[in-house]
Design a protein that fits this description.
Order of helices and strands of chain B: HHHEHHEHEHEHEHEEEHHHEEHEEEHH
Oligomer: heterodimer
Shape of chain B: globular
Order of helices and strands of chain A: EHHEEHEEEHHEEEHEEEEHEEEHEHEE
CATH class of the largest domain in chain A: Alpha Beta
CATH topology of the largest domain in chain B: Aspartate Aminotransferase, domain 2
CATH superfamily of the largest domain in chain A: Gcn5-related N-acetyltransferase (GNAT)
Number of domains of chain B: 2
Strand content of chain A: 25-35%
Structural class of chain B: alpha/beta
CATH topology of the largest domain in chain A: Aminopeptidase
Number of domains of chain A: 3
Radius of gyration of chain B: 22 Å
Largest interface: A-B, 43 and 48 residues
Helix content of chain A: 25-40%
Number of helices of chain B: 15
Strand order of the largest sheet of chain B: 2-8-7-6-5-3-4
Helix content of chain B: 25-40%
CATH architecture of the largest domain in chain A: 3-Layer(aba) Sandwich
Number of strands of chain B: 13
Strand order of the largest sheet of chain A: 6-7-8-9-10-12-11
Largest sheet of chain B: 7 strands, mixed
Shape of chain A: globular
Number of helices of chain A: 9
CATH superfamily of the largest domain in chain B: Type I PLP-dependent aspartate aminotransferase-like (Major domain)
Strand content of chain B: 5-15%
């Protein structure tokens, strides 16, 4: 579904009708459809005020578990309005538009903006479907001594796997989006996610692993989640090798594993750190898929020890350039893409633009996230984007510490920094 | 000019395809990995270089010839190849490396909606060219590291134009015997073209290894690929060829690019062809190197796949891409096998005794050093 429309307030009913129709098409429930329509209304008005009269296109991407409305605009709107910390201003017309966006970002599950490769900007509103709570209880399972791997499990097996995860692992050890079973099944059907299962001769479940590959160059893997009684090391290794085999000849560059237990060395993942969180530990691993030819990296002087240590440990060939802030002209403003997971209290900030107002914008975000009781905040810095380094002193000052390096995770390598709630 | 509509101009099957990025030059790699020398063991090149006659020709090549176009259809070389192989010159088509010849054949026989069938873990170029040409590539899993006759036949249908058999297979070195190939051809029938990629044929010493060209009179739907890059050591000049029946090559010639093989390559290939002394010396070097590597792997308890070919595959107890990086730091460049859908394996090209010995030492050091994977995780992790 696609709509081309001029950015004038009179066209708003057409756009809202399109959003409602799209939501219906994507099988969203009435309440979710209303929220998407509300977000659309507010976003459209904000754009009308920012770039009046411009021609835009709106299209639907049905992800099965969610509906995305994608607004393609030919020129950059005033990007400041997209920071989630933009505060309502009832006094001026522009302020009202900002307030609308403030609301829009909350009515949706994900709200992002990106510059398109071939020109223009794309703003995305995502509304996820809600799913009934599962009535399925995890049953005691017999030991499975011999198993086979499948990359195309039946829907029933996927549902059983979702119940296994929910029943046998702490809530912090898996993303909540893998339950209830209906959601996992829809995620798999979207083709952005895949499930690899190990099953015995009669189809009995021995364990599995879930992967997620969207638009980046890295595949996120979750697991292995195993049934009790299964020989863990051999099965974990087989599941990890299978996912590497699956993406080995793709254009993706690496795998990042989030594991509920330390993956065995033979599984091919390099240990990338672990994170103790209330209720459990998440182990992280990294596996490069491609042959490394080396790269240039711009790194803030404050992160140099961390980065060089990890480059040495992972045998990465990097021409490292220490980046100093010498007062040169940077972007005019700072813009974060923010992903929130209220269920786990986790927030992820990704700098899209870093400017001279970086510290102030960061402080606003942290203040808001603290107020809304997010207990774990992540921020990623890209060594392929020199201006990201300008943000580093402010991140460290506000309690962030570097935790994990994901080679080739962005334009260059991604450094994940972590801040526990309230730490300063 | 704004190229906003560029994406709309690109076919979907090209849009989905990611360009292959070849490795940078050696000096750049040495600088990045901090090694003072680099031994390439990743491309299955011949460490002896080209045969002496070709080497002599290259040294005395008249630069004046470079300003003239080469023979557009490699006529002198085709004549010599035809004589050497026992076919007619019209049965031979040359290309700028075997990769170009693969493209000639796919373009000649396939259109959108058609498919090719090959193995999932073999030379990637058949699959790549098919996909960016809008042709479906159906992949049959290997059976015990070898091409699986049943799996291939199960994937063939009325839209299957080409079946690619890499014999011996790169990277596993496994091969079909003459009897097995004949049985497969009989079961497949005459309605599909079978491409037998014999890039490593000159290395094979097994008596029942089939000569595909000799089978063409019985199976006119056979095409055989060969190359001057491997045994003849002319990889840098890019020259390969196909042999088929005249009926088949008349069709392939329509999509073959003329003048794509340069004069130097044609002249060197003419000089190199059929040097049996050189072939024996190379085979002997390969055999020694295979034995040395197999002994080292036995000591390290690493599974290894060896063959008559000038490469071997080794299974490591950790990531192949990590091994690649660590070996690069020691000056040895191997091929990671994750890209061939063999995660955890590396493919190693056979080379001269000194370099092979050096590699064995580096491999041993690497395997012993990986017992403690990453102490830094403890420093920077919470646990």
């Amino acid at each position: 579904m696609k709509l081309s429309v001029e950015l004038i307030p009179e066209r708003m009913p057409v756009v809202v009708a399109f959003a409602e129709s799209a939501a219906k098409n994507a099988d969203l429930a009435a309440a979710e459809a209303t929220m998407l329509a509300l977000s659309t209304e507010e976003l459209f008005l904000a754009l009308c005020s920012s770039i009046p009269g411009a021609e835009i296109t709106v299209r639907l991407r049905d992800r099965r578990y969610a509906a995305d409305l994608l607004f393609q605009v030919p020129q950059p709107p005033d990007l400041r309005i997209f920071n989630i910390t933009s505060r309502p201003d009832h006094e001026t017309e522009e302020g009202l538009a900002d307030m609308g966006l403030f609301l829009a970002s909350r009515a949706c599950d994900q709200f992002s903006i990106r510059q398109m490769e071939l020109g223009g900007w794309e703003i995305m509103l995502r509304k996820e479907r809600s799913y009934p709570v599962s009535a399925q209880q995890s049953q005691p399972r017999p030991s499975v001594l011999t198993w086979q791997l499948t990359t195309a499990p039946t829907p029933d097996a996927v549902k059983e796997f979702s119940a296994l995860i929910a029943g046998c692992y702490a809530a912090c050890q898996f993303p909540d989006e893998f339950t209830p079973p209906g959601r996992l099944l829809d995620k798999q059907a979207s083709n952005e996610y895949g499930v690899i299962l190990a099953q015995g001769e009669q189809g009995e479940l021995a364990g599995g692993l879930i992967w997620h590959a969207d638009e980046g160059r890295i595949v996120e893997c979750f697991g292995p989640y195993l049934t009790a009684g299964t020989e863990p090391e051999q099965l974990a290794t087989a599941l990890c090798e299978k996912v590497a085999e699956l993406f080995g000849r793709s254009n993706l560059l690496g795998l990042v594993l989030y594991a509920p237990q330390q993956p065995p060395a033979a599984a091919g993942f390099e240990t990338a750190g672990s994170l103790a969180i209330p209720g459990g530990t998440i182990w992280t691993g990294y596996r490069m898929l491609a042959e490394e030819f080396g790269a240039d990296a711009a790194v803030a002087v404050e992160l140099m020890p961390f980065y060089t240590d990890w480059c040495n440990s992972m045998a990465l060939a990097r021409n490292i350039r220490s980046y100093h802030d010498d007062g040169e002209t940077a972007n005019g403003l700072t813009l974060f893409a923010t992903r929130l997971n209220r269920a786990t209290g986790m927030a992820r900030l990704t700098p899209l633009l870093v400017g001279r107002d970086a510290e102030a914008v960061l402080e606003e975000h942290l203040h808001l996230l603290d107020q809304e009781q997010f207990s774990a905040i992540y921020c990623t810095i890209d060594t392929g984007r020199p201006f990201d380094s300008l943000l580093v002193p402010h991140l460290l000052k506000h309690g962030f510490t570097p935790r994990m390096l994901v080679p080739w995770g962005g334009t260059g390598d991604l450094i994940h920094l972590y801040r526990a709630g309230g730490s300063r | 000019m704004n190229l906003c509509n560029l994406e709309a101009l690109v076919p979907q099957y090209v849009r989905q395809f990611e360009a292959y990025i070849p490795s940078p030059p050696d000096d750049e790699l040495q600088r990045m990995f901090g090694c003072s020398r680099l031994v390439r063991m990743n491309n299955n090149e011949n460490p002896l270089g080209p045969p002496p006659a070709a080497a002599a020709l290259l040294k005395t090549f008249d630069p004046a010839l470079v300003s003239r176009y080469p023979s557009g259809d490699c006529r002198p070389l085709r004549a010599k190849l035809a004589d050497y192989l026992g076919v007619t010159p019209l049965q031979v088509i040359l290309g700028n490396g075997a990769n170009e010849v693969i493209a000639f054949v796919i373009k000649a026989f396939c259109e959108q909606g058609d498919n090719i069938v090959t193995a999932d873990r073999t030379f990637a170029v058949y699959e790549w060219i098919a996909r960016f040409s809008g042709v479906d590539a159906r992949l049959a899993p290997l059976d015990d590291f070898g091409f699986d006759e049943e799996g291939i036949l199960a994937r063939v249908d009325s839209r299957t134009k080409l079946v690619f058999i890499c014999n011996p297979n790169n990277p596993t070195g496994t091969w079909w015997s003459k009897d097995r190939l004949i049985r497969f051809m009989e079961r497949l029938g005459p309605n599909h073209i079978v491409v037998l990629d014999e890039a490593y044929a000159e290395f094979m010493e097994q008596p029942d290894y089939p000569d595909g060209i000799a089978l063409m009179s019985r199976f006119p739907n056979l095409i055989v690929f060969r190359t001057f890059s491997k045994m003849y050591g002319l990889a840098g000049l890019r020259i390969g060829y196909l042999v088929g029946t005249e009926q088949v090559t008349d069709i392939v010639r329509k999509t073959a690019i003329v003048y794509s093989v340069n004069t130097l390559a044609q002249s060197a290939a003419l000089a190199a062809l059929g040097d049996q002394t050189f072939i024996s010396a190379t085979r002997s070097l390969v055999q020694d190197a295979q034995q040395m590597l197999a002994a080292q792997c036995a000591e390290l308890k690493l599974p290894i796949l060896t063959s008559d070919c000038n490469f071997a595959m080794i299974k490591l107890p950790f990531s192949d891409t990590l091994a690649y990086r660590l070996l690069m730091q020691q000056g040895y460049m191997v091929r990671t096998m994750t890209g061939f859908r063999f995660p955890g394996w590396i493919r190693v090209s056979m080379t001269n005794r000194d370099a092979m010995q050096g590699f064995c030492t580096a491999l041993s050091r690497l395997v012993h050093s990986r017992t403690d994977q990453s102490p830094l995780a403890k420093v920077y992790g919470v646990a």
